[in-house]
Design goal:
Layout lengths: L18 E2 L13 H9 L20 E11 L3 E8 L10 E2 L2 E3 L7 H13 L6 E6 L3 E2 L4 E10 L12 E8 H4 L6 E7 L2 E7 L2 E7 L5 E4 L3 H15 L1
Parallel strand pairs: 2-8
Antiparallel strand pairs: 1-10, 2-3, 2-5, 3-4, 3-9, 6-8, 7-8, 10-11, 12-13
Length: about 240
């Protein structure tokens, strides 16, 4: 892979917050149940995704990929997310949805998402109920990603691949579907203004080695796809 110029090296947490979208209504709790989500995908609304892609920064040939939005059916739905391993060549250390590049043997985006989730974190396919897909999202590194939304039955035992995943955690779906937690940012790089969302989440039970609460900084493509999911559910 070659890049037009080196990727911007910055701490996304250091970029000022331009605004918080607390003027938008959160998705009502009754819409965030397994049955309500099943009905929404069976009878989808007319809607337009808010984020379809990022400004390209790579000379990479476009490649198809898929990610899984695994919604674990606990007392309230939670979204299972990963922290990418630090040794990865792209987006190392970033919070991500399990997924990856489409293989020639994959029948479709759903097959890609399920295979990658099993390879990355050991998510058993027998625990996964696929609901449907969201519109594609194109990353600046030229991946054309199809998000696959699925319900996940609890009781699974995950086995993360240490070469790809540094950590796994869950965030309440209600938190992510509340725009009061959606922050807007922008910065200039290579003469181009780049904009993105962040959705920082502090896990009440997760602590660092110093005993401080651990912040999970969800941003970039992951936050963009989650914002589209918000638009889909609130349409």
């Amino acid at each position: 892979m070659t890049f037009k110029k080196p990727l911007p090296q910055f701490n996304p947490r250091s970029i000022p917050v331009l605004g918080i979208d607390d003027h938008l209504a959160e998705v009502a709790p009754e819409r965030l149940t397994p049955q309500s989500l099943r009905e929404r995908f069976r009878h989808p609304p007319v809607w337009t995704p808010e984020h379809s892609g990022e400004r390209k920064y790579s000379d990479r040939k476009p490649a198809l990929a898929a990610v899984l939005l695994p919604l674990v059916m606990r007392d309230e739905l939670t979204l299972l997310l990963t922290v990418r391993a630090l040794n990865l060549s792209t987006h190392s250390g970033h919070i991500a949805l399990p997924g990856g590049r489409t293989d020639a043997t994959d029948q479709d985006a759903i097959a890609t998402a399920l295979r990658e989730a099993h390879e990355e974190i050991g998510l058993p396919r027998g625990h996964v109920e696929v609901l449907g897909t969201l519109p594609t999202y194109v990353t600046g590194s030229a991946f054309i990603i199809t998000p696959v939304v699925a319900l996940v039955k609890p009781g699974f035992v995950l086995q993360p691949n240490p070469g790809e995943v540094a950590d796994i955690f869950e965030v309440p779906l209600g938190y992510l579907m509340n725009p009061a937690h959606h922050r807007r940012h922008e910065t200039a790089f290579d003469g181009v203004l780049r904009q993105w969302l962040s959705m920082p989440y502090t896990h009440p039970m997760a602590e660092t080695d110093t005993g401080e609460s651990r912040e999970r900084y969800i941003w970039g493509a992951t936050a963009g796809m989650l914002r589209n999911f918000y638009r889909f559910l609130s349409a």
